[in-house]
Amino acid sequence: MKNICFASLFLILLGSCGPGAEKTVAPIQQAASDSAKASAEKQRFFPVTDYLKGQLFEISKKEVTPLKYITIGDHTDSVWLKREEVGPEVKEFLTPQIDSMNLIGLFTEKKFMDQTLDALTFTYEPTSTIPDSLKLQRWDIYVDPNTGKVRRIYLVKTAGENRILQLTWLSDKWCKMTTINSRPDGSSVVEREEKIVWDF
């Protein structure tokens, strides 16, 4: 039910790009600045964090025991989790709050139809250099073009100088957290992968 509500909200937000107030400004630089500001104000970011919290709430109510797979190198172990343990497992990706209020001045939205995935794709990337304190680097949302339902969410964060954290969230099914270590020679290696499954 929450997924339907979020999907509906998403579609409403996409259609709510009303025109901003027009201003007559003589200097060209000011006009360009106002245009960029108006364009940013038209963006309506999908509330990713609230969506993930909604998914966690649904997991807590399901009659299922989530299974966590931990892969380090070529070795994979698994452990059963309590439903209420899934939230703490993904807490790193619940901050900062991803919505229009917090990040609209720092990130820009691009949307396109990905024919290979048959999904409407929304990509969010920094408009310029972002503060060092903000570990979030980018995120993508994949939406079913027929139902408007979010299929998948992908987030990228930094964790220190040489580490990247990735979250892949497949709606209603599983999530995967990947830790990537960047080497001095420019190459990278997957240090650790954790996948939590709650739909079998």
Description:
There is one protein chain. It is built from 5 helices and 9 strands, in the order αααββααβββββββ. With about 200 residues, it is of the alpha+beta class. The chain has a 9-stranded antiparallel sheet with strand order 2-1-9-8-7-6-5-4-3, covered by helices on one side. A hairpin with a 3-residue loop joins strand 7 and strand 8. The longest helix has 15 residues. It is globular and about 40 Å long. About 15% of the residues are buried.
Low-pLDDT stretches: 4-40
The Cα radius of gyration reads 19 Å
What profile does the largest beta sheet have? 9 strands, antiparallel
Which structural category do the helix and sheet elements fall into? Answer: alpha+beta
Please count the helical segments.
5
Estimate the mean pLDDT confidence. 83
Strand order of the largest sheet: 2-1-9-8-7-6-5-4-3
N-to-C CA distance? 20 Å
Shape: globular
Number of strands: 9
Order of helices and strands: HHHEEHHEEEEEEE
Helix content: 25-40%
Proportion of residues in extended strands = 35-45%
Give the SSE layout:
Layout: H1 2-14, H2 28-42, H3 48-61, E1 67-72, E2 75-80, H4 86-89, H5 100-103, E3 107-114, E4 119-126, E5 136-143, E6 150-158, E7 163-170, E8 174-182, E9 188-197
Antiparallel strand pairs: 1-2, 1-9, 3-4, 4-5, 5-6, 6-7, 7-8, 8-9
Offer a concise description of the structure:
The chain has 200 residues and is α+β, with helices and mostly antiparallel strands. It has helices at residues 2-14, 28-42, 48-61, 86-89, 100-103, and strands at residues 67-72, 75-80, 107-114, 119-126, 136-143, 150-158, 163-170, 174-182, 188-197. It has a 9-stranded antiparallel β-sheet with strand order 2-1-9-8-7-6-5-4-3, with helices on one face.
